[in-house]
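Backbone geometry:

***
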Amino acid sequence: MSNQKTRQWRTKLRSQLRLLKLMLCAAVISVYSLTTHRVTAFSSGPPPSQTGAPGEGTCASCHGSFPLNSGGGTFIITGLPATYLSGQEVDITITLRQSNRELYGFQVTAVNDAGGQAGTLIVTDPTRTRTVAGSVGGGRVYIEHTFSGTTPSATNQGSWTFRWRAPATSAGRVTFYAAGNAANGNGNPGGDFIYTATAATQPAAQPAPTITNLNPNLAAAGGPAFTLIVTGTNFVSGSIVRWNNADRTTNMVSGTQLTASILATDIAVAGTANVTVANPGNVSSNASAFMIAASGLEADVAPRGNVNGAVSVSDWAQVGRFAAGLDVVNQGSEFQRADCAPKDTLGNGVISLADWVQAGRYATGLDPVAPGGGPTGPISASIVAPDVEARASSLDALPEAGASQVRVVRATPAAIHSDRFISLIIQLDVPGDIHALGFSLNFDPNRLRFAGASSGREMSRAAFIVNTEQADNGRIGVLLTLPPGQKLSSDVRSLMAIHFSAAADGSLSDAQVSFGDDPVAREIADAEANPLPAAFEESVANPNVSIFNLGKERVRNRRK
């Protein structure tokens, strides 16, 4: 071969060798880059499904330098109770210990015996842990380390804490599967030790919920929808209130209280409904009876003709108008509901001050509302004025009491007066346990005109009603009451003032004012709506002001 050909051949060979070296270099760089990328990705958390749970591999599929669990370290799951309750939340810690390691990592999942996800894994330390989803077992969720979470938490140790919420309904046995990596930190999967661990918990016997109270515990048939408050014990997330075994929308307030939305159709027909509470796993409570009253509720009289199945301040005001004679109560169902005192007998055939007081107790929740019952009309057979006669005769029938028990109401002329104006002060001799009183005043309309009424300074909390519809005929009625549940203090004497002026063509001389029972019967009641023995007396007039011709004293429950 000539020298020239030899040189050409050598030049071509050198070019081919250089190309081969470049290709080899590129391949090495490519392999190194891929390896580095995978190691870097795993330091930020492994791919899903590496815990050793059914259907999964472990981290040893990449880090295969040593057999599983052969590094002499420990890998444990702590914090998991032996048994769990539905919806219970517990904090769980994964700890990996091995000496002479640079980095630590883990992955864990919770699985039921069917291989599905069991409960909810909750991140509590986002710096060191995160969640990822996989596709094995219908889509299991995993907790694993983050890039920051690979640093040791203590000497020769890595640990991670998260929260597990148990299933809302029992899932049977739940097993936690975990894999851990005690890594040497050399940037590749070689030389790392892989560990696995499991821990299991069983469902606990579910404590049965109990119902101790329903509020309200009754409603009128045909009433509107309402919110039922159920009080009891052992309520949990997922507890459901059932109305006659039908689930109702339920809100958990606490472990001892639930609220439920009761439909108008639930109380459309009179009868009794059974209310129960069912905890997850269909663990049921005792049954508590809810009454649906056919005749409405005691004291439920407003709005008239279209009662709403509840007792409120509107009903209290309407009963007050009945008791004051401002409105005439219809016999039948309306009378039965308005006549709500005495409470124990659901009325007494009389619409009086005591009914106003009892309606206030119902409206403010001092007494639980009762289903309507009792008389459907006045006890008097009179057609002309049955209410007036019934009230007076009812009060006269009070049991006999000694003089020391009688509360004395006096009407006394005020010290300050003029020739055309006079005030009558209503006073109590012995306030005692008085909550409310009612009375009427009779006067000569040819001499006096009713000019108004005002409560005393000590009675600023009181409410009063004055019926002036018969004022032109010389009669007014008065009802006065403190807020429900309250009573007069022992030092209160002056209750209110009734003001009169001289009639246009009349004179105050020899004018007469006396207590009466029309339109409001004389009555005193305590805070529990019980009538009290009382006497109503007109005091001796100031000798210099001859305007009162004292009427005959009328005494309730005191024999002369």
Remarks:
- The chain has five helices and 32 strands.
